[in-house]
Amino acid sequence: MKHLILTLAAVGAAASLTACGKKEATTANGAAPPATASAAPASEAGAMPMAADAKMAKSTGTVTAVGADSVTIDHAPIPEANWPAMTMSFKASPDLAKSVKVGDKVAFDLKLDGSAGEITAIQKQ
Ligand SMILES: [Cu+2]
Q1: In whole angstroms, what separates CA 34 from the centre of its chain?
Q2: How far is the CA of 111 from the centre of ligand 1 (A)?
Q3: Is the full-model pTM beyond 0.70?
Q4: Residue 116 banded pLDDT, cuts 50, 70, 90
Q5: C-alpha of residue 78 to centroid of ligand 1, in Å
Q6: Residue 74 in contact with residue 61, Cβ under 8 Å?
Q7: Shortest CA distance to 74 belongs to which of 66, 96, 82?
Q8: How far is the CA of 56 from the centre of ligand 1 (A)?
Q9: Out of 3.30.2320.80, 2.60.120.890, 2.40.50.320, 3.40.50.1860, which CATH number does the structure's domain 55-124 have?
Q10: How many Å lie between the centroid of ligand 1 and the Cα of residue 84?
Q11: Ion ligand 1, residue ranges at CB < 5 A
Q12: 104 CA distance to ligand 1 centroid (A)?
């Protein structure tokens, strides 16, 4: 079992080394477009999860509910998160949650973590 895993890892390492070698050869020769085409999407896919991890965003909306540590906002679209306009609950510190009430029109800053968002600042408009 251990041997199999090590073998697979070695094959993977060899494959990426081969890909790098091909890429350099492509640059030197200016030929072989298929290698370039397959290398680009692979690196983009590798970078995407990291970029989606902790992004900041700003939006505006109307408060529809306030909890002890959450604020529900009918918010405008948030392109940074690929969200259309919607009503959703965000995590918020108790101090931030206390600073607004239902019906307030607000501008807020969000820390995005996957499909969740935490309010880091909020101001009445
Ligand atoms: Cu939303």
Answers
A1: 29
A2: 13
A3: no
A4: confident
A5: 7
A6: yes
A7: 66
A8: 14
A9: 2.40.50.320
A10: 7
A11: 83, 86, 88
A12: 17
Residue with tokens 């079992």: 1
Q: How confident is the model at residue 114 (pLDDT cuts 50, 70, 90)?
A: confident
Residue 85 makes CB contacts below 8 A (sequence gap 6+) with 74, 75, 76, 77
Ranges of each domain in the chain: 2-53, 55-124
- d(CA 76, CA 55) in angstroms, rounded, equals 17
pLDDT digits (tens, 9 = 90+) for 24-61: 443 444 444 444 444 444 444 444 444 445 789 999 99
User: Which tokens is 112 given?
Assistant: 């995005």
In the chain, the amino acid numbered 2 is K
Residue 109 structure tokens:
């800053």
